[in-house]
Amino acid sequence: MSRSAPVQIANEVALAATMSRPNDGPGGLPAAATASGDEGAEAGVMAYVLRRSGGHREPLPSWWPPELRGLISRCWAQDPADRPSFSKIHAELRRMAADGLLADMDARDPARASACGCTVS
User: Fold this and answer.
1) Alpha-carbon dihedral of residues 40, 43, 49, 54, nearest 10 degrees?
2) Which InterPro entries has this protein been placed in (predicted)?
3) How many Cβ atoms sit within 10 Å of the Cβ of residue 27?
4) Run of H or E including 69
5) Residue 30 DSSP one-character state
6) SS3 assignment, position 32
7) From CA 31, how far away is CA 17, in angstroms rounded?
8) How many Å apart are CA 64 and CA 71, to the nearest integer?
9) Per-residue pLDDT at 47 exceeds 70
10) Exposure string over 46-66, b if 16+ CB within 10 A, otherwise e
11) Are 73 and 52 spatial neighbours (Cβ–Cβ below 8 Å)?
12) If you placed Cys at 8, which of 80, 93, 111, 112 could pair as Cys (CB 3.0 to 4.6 Å)?
């Protein structure tokens, strides 16, 4: 008996597939999910999802290490087959941490340059 590999589908693709069903609620969400919600907020959420499903991503902060920005960009690949596995993500993050690339990210943040000096532990 042959077994086929599991099918991978991006979440935004799965969500978009539900939008054409009859009796959908506002913004294409299932009616049961929107029965008590605010239609304006739902429309905003759907607009956000549709932008992301079309490939739009907010720019990553320039002060983040290039290795981290590259990893995040690969995680955002439109084709799920091009995205790294969780074990690969974990291994890369551990390597970055061991190399000290992530140690001073908060200190590099220009918005924190004028902070009060408080720390959270």
Assistant:
1) -130
2) Kinase-like_dom_sf, Ser-Thr/Tyr_kinase_cat_dom
3) 20
4) helix 66-75
5) B
6) helix
7) 15
8) 11
9) yes
10) beebbebeeeeeeeeeeebbe
11) no
12) 80
